[in-house]
Amino acid sequence: MGPVPESVLRFNVQAEQGRRCEACVVIDSTINSSSCGGLSLVSELNPDVLSRVARSRTRTLALLGLPLGGAAAAIVVPSHSSASLVKQSLSLFGQAAYPLLVTQRFWPEPCLGLDDAEIRYMLEEAGVTVPRHMLRGSSGRYAGLTVALSVLVALRTAGVKQRGATAAVEGFGKMGSAVALALHERGVKVVAVSTKEGALFDGDGLDVPDLLRRQAHYGKSFVHKPIDADRIPVGEIRRLAVDVLCPCAVPENLEDEVVGQLRCRALVPGAAMPLHSTGEDSIVRRGILYVPELVAGCGDALAGVLLSSGLTDAGVREFIERRFTPLLEWLVEAADRKGIPLHEYATHYSEERFARRKRASDEGRRVSRYELAMGLYHRRLVPSVFVRRVSVNAIASRLLPDGDDGDVPMEWAHAAGRP
Questions:
Q1: Is pTM beyond 0.90 here?
Q2: Is 106 exposed, middle or buried, given 0-12, 13-18 or 19+ CB atoms closer than 10 A?
Q3: Domains of the chain: which residue ranges?
Q4: Helix, strand, coil shares of the chain as percentages rounded to 5?
Q5: Which site from 106, 290, 327, 352 is most exposed, i.e. has the minimal number of CB atoms within 10 Å?
Q6: DSSP 88
Q7: How far apart are CA 248 and CA 77, in angstroms?
């Protein structure tokens, strides 16, 4: 990867009746001329933050061995905009970015303020064909699952028993609510959650399924409705003495001053780039175990490939639960052997993987059986059952650790379907 993104494209589109769209797409890298990343709604553009988010996406995709570059994009929409204004902005963005979208030089995924249906609407309005099984309402759920599984690894690493451990989730949206539910189901006490409008705390553990029902009924304001829990200031959730804090809100939401006030034993974010540039080193100096978001939040990226391969929701969840934890445990052990923080090792490892895959792409390597099968499947020339097993084995194989950090564990070989 170079020191600067491949492309930074800014749009300022004026349409009929005074409508306009200001947006920015940052393409950090491409493989085979393609990239993907989150599309967000923001109140103001910050290309520097987008560049960092896009770089993190490159690293996540490389960590998983997926043949895509990383990107990020944002559309300026005033806070509390109506649904019709959001649709208008999405439509204008789709028109302006059509050359990127139709060639998949940039493939958008829902991020802040958007869901799968809205991204699908934008693409279809622009005349871009959406592949089967993509953008079907699952955004955030799988990333929430990998964040929760990362929490369990962090607890074991820190010597904390899983059942009864405490966690706080900042940002109870699509991803944050999925994190909270997955932790609740695994015996971790979720003692605090927050939205932009407020935060709730219960030292004995919140009833997460009840919170989800309230959220579905009231939206973000559910934190103001009568409930058997204490209301605390939004920022207070970061200063709670919990085993794990999971920031799942906006990028760079934990300022350096806040990092100095953290009382958690581990920080496992779902949000892209939750820390400022110096925050990761500060976290380590304070003795807090930090699982970087390029690892913890990888679930949606991995699920996107699996869903496009014809797997069901249940199949995707089973794949992630079986194969993600060994990858993270291997990274933790490898970082420990080298005597460096996990985030440094994960960054170095993913960038090395990216460089190798980029070289292979630039040299015009032969198409793999997996890529050939996927091409036939998306052209509706073969049924999903034909590609499903090929895809699962190929994607599991791409997750295998490489490099010279020791032998590959035998369970990895079996998981990948290798002899």
A1: no
A2: buried
A3: 7-125, 141-296, 299-415
A4: 50, 15, 35
A5: 352
A6: H
A7: 21
Which amino acid belongs to residue 299?
Answer: G
Q: What percent of the chain has pLDDT over 70?
A: 86
CATH number given to 141-296:
3.40.50.720
- Report which residue type is found at 161: K
In terms of Cα–Cα distance, which of 194, 149, 188 is closest to 169? 194
As beta bridge partners, residue 190 has 167
Q: Look up the CATH number of domain 7-125.
A: 3.40.50.10860
- pLDDT digit string (tens) for 265-293? 999 999 887 887 677 888 888 899 999 99
Q: Which residues of 128-167 are buried (b: 16+ CB within 10 A; e: fewer)?
A: beeeebbbeebbbbbbbbbbbbbbbbbbebeebeeeebbb
The total of other beta-carbon atoms located within 10 Å of residue 117's CB is 13
**Average model confidence (pLDDT) for the chain?**
86
